[in-house]
Amino acid sequence: MIHTVDVDLSASELRGYARREKDPRVARRMLAIANALDGMSRALSARLAGMDRQALRDWVIRYNESRPHTSLGWLTPAEFASSAGVNPGR
Question: Which among 27, 46, 65, 71 has most CB atoms closer than 10 A?
Answer without folding.
Answer: 46
